[in-house]
Write a structure and sequence with these properties.
- The structure is a single chain.
- By secondary structure, this protein is an all-alpha fold.
- The chain has 7 helices and no strands.
- The chain starts with 6 loop residues before the first helix and ends in a 12-residue tail after the last helix.
Length: about 140
């Protein structure tokens, strides 16, 4: 599947709201100027259709800014959290003893966004059937 424009994926009000709730539980500040960029990265990562390097390039193009500036904005959002994101995630979502819940490790921006995107995809697909099923085939 080739997606020429990612705007349609990022402009779904319901998915944005659910992602806001998910990220709010981790300490993200919706009022920060760069938060929307981070949320968009998590939403796009949840679709699993692009490698992180391609994903960030497409998001920067969509935002009409340089990729390096986009990455600075994402890092800014993460560094301004009250506690590191992996600690917040584990405290909120991985506190159960039965090991069925994934534990987040300290990671770079790629790993962080992909991890949160994967968890967000699971939340949406499991509890809010908004996404259609995507089948990947090697061509």
């Amino acid at each position: 599947m080739t997606i020429n424009k990612i705007d349609a994926l990022l402009n779904d009000a319901e998915i944005n709201y659910i992602c806001d709730l998910f990220l709010f539980n981790l300490g993200f500040d919706r009022t920060s100027s760069d938060y929307r960029h981070f949320r968009n990265a998590v939403i796009l990562a949840s679709h699993g259709i692009l490698k992180p390097s391609d994903m960030f390039t497409r998001l920067a193009e969509c935002a009409d800014i340089d990729r390096s500036d986009y990455m600075k904005k994402l890092n800014s959002v993460l560094t301004n959290l009250p506690v590191p994101v992996y600690e917040a995630y584990n405290a909120v979502y991985a506190t159960f003893d039965d090991r069925r819940y994934p534990v987040m490790s300290k990671s770079d921006i790629n790993g962080t966004v992909v991890f949160l995107g994967t968890v967000f995809m699971y939340i949406v697909v499991s509890y809010y059937p908004k996404y259609g099923r995507v089948i990947f085939r090697n061509i």
